[in-house]
Amino acid sequence: MRFIYKFFVGILFYCLNINLLYADTFSSLSPSKNMKIYFNLSNSGEPYYWLEYKGRKVIDKSKLGFELKGKNNLLDSFSVIDVVYDKFDETWTPVWGEVNKIRNNYNELLIKLKQSDTQRLMNIRFRVYDEGVGFRYEFPQQKKLGGFVIKEERSQFAMTGNHIAWWIPGDYDTNEYDYTESRLSEIRQLHKKAISWNLSQTPFSPTAVQTSLQMKTDDGLYINIHEAALIDYSCMHLELDDRSFIFESRLTPDAAGYKGRLQAPCKTPWRTIMVSDDARDILSSHLILNLNDPCKLKDTSWIKPVKYIGVWWEMITGKGSWAYTNSLAAVQLDEVDYSILPPNNRHSANNENVKKYIDFASKHGFDQVLVEGWNIGWEDWFGRQKDYVYDFLTPYPDFDIKMLNDYAHSKGVKLMMHHETSGSSRNYEWHIDDAYELMNKYGYNAVKSGYVGDILPYGEHHFGQWMNNHYLYCVKKAAKYKIMVNAHEATRPTGLCRTYPNLIANESARGTEYQQSGGCKPFHTSILPFTRLQGGPMDYTPGIMEMDISKVNPNRKTRIVATIANQLALYVTMYSPLQMAADLPENYEKFIDAFQFIKDVALDWDQSIYLEAEPGRYVTVARKAKGTENWFVGSVAGTEQHISNISLDFLDKDKKYIATIYADGKDADWKTNPQSYAIEKGVVTNKTKLKIKTVPAGGYAISIFEVKDKKEIKGLKRL
Ligand code: NOJ
Ligand code: CA
Fold this sequence. Notes:
The protein is of the alpha+beta class.
């Protein structure tokens, strides 16, 4: 009897306990019920969450909160004062993009918290999508919390195992690293190797990595962590506790070492977690864009995708130079008399050379020609003889800005402006109105800006709150002048291009300038779509056809880690409305049949279908050119060869098409025979199936044009 009594009392207590444990657990499912977020408070009032995907835990219990300067922290002693459930479903039209319509469909869970001892309010808002979740902190207007300084954000992302990760080291100033593929437990030991071969670096912990971070679990789940809508806040890195596999946020510090200066009411960027059992879903997700605000520009008619060439590759290969002289006197004197400074005879931005590029652009249908090194100051762009070098206004003596713009316009081409700031953000802000007015005066509508070197004001970092505000200030200011911005060395994008679509591209990763031996492993371009491209387009600058750089500059003994077919594929796999054909005109003349793909490929799309994807192995995507029935397919391989089997069932069943396949040649090899490619042309329909082999660091590209007149296909075979 006593036993039975004890048993029942036991059961009662057990149930009560369950209730106690779960009474305060709040949860929300995604619209398809795939994804489920849970929120609770620990006994000491610490907020935490966990995440399930198809009933499997993908993020284990993870704490949320902040350490503040000089005040009580926002880490514990919270109670839930209100919970609001909501849902949202809307379809919007991007100004440019991978698709012409984007559905934004989520369920929302808003947890309103109050800290018992301080009475301060902090909300955590979760948005649960079918492909992932976003959460952010919000600080409502309140009496007990006004301005505050963040010592560290302590958002955790607890992994459930020793996953495989594709990572670059945490760094406050550069994303230009080679990727490493390893287990989480191996990050510490591989960190040293991962930071070698880099110019400027501030890696801060041997287990810190950057986002967007791509992972894969042993049971085949793909997890991606990044952030969205990074505004007035510092960029987040993730530091791994490699015993527990818990990542925690590490924000970029300011000059005083603090991580953020906020004033309520305010909110943080979204922390995003994407999950799927199909890697293609990570690539086709619009979660990051959806978490950004709708477009704030009223008139966007002036924002146009751009295909361009430039004198840039001459400089990167060392054939040409940005500077007009080799004399530092050019930046030491207030008034420089160029007639007494000897030219170095390598200055690429000279009238004759730029005209040659304009002619080539006009002949082959490019929109713009980027001319770097057109303005004075380049003699000291690393050295900093002065705290500010450039005025962004004064051309070198051999660059006739009016003549060249007039010449370009007469040939249906625009010049692209270049503003290297050498990291001096204040100097740029001082000159920015004059610089943009000059662009308006001469008919430039796009600027490539850059932030090489340490940031001025001293002590600030490229990815800190200060600089993030600067980058956005420039984008907003540029919009007033109807100027599109492509900022290099800026913080990696977080989807702000939805709100400000004149932010047409960024760099923020190793681009082609690093796709040289030693700079990238062969799998580089099969990782970037999973990582860097999550937040927005990249000015990757592909299209190199002369892979042996010593043929461009005998003193440079590097080679490009790619085949020609890989370089063509990048115009499709690396989505961007801004695309450069980076190689020299004379190299394109040598491969004019392959060059045809670069001329043909579209920049803006109605549809994108990821056909195959595996990080570091291969990415194959088909895209339908905006407003047409034409398609382009691109496929890049990683370290190993890949046999790609694809079906063209995405084509219209009632139409015929002419396809041109640009594939790796049978004997192609990025090290020994990168210029081997095979072009095949024929008729395809939606029944066509293709099997194409790509070599390591290789790829293929296909253009598929709708047949409008039967005569076009006469004599062509079926593929
Ligand atoms: C680094 C940029 O990534 C590169 O594209 C540019 O040419 C140089 N800075 C000079 O601005
Ligand atoms: Ca760069």
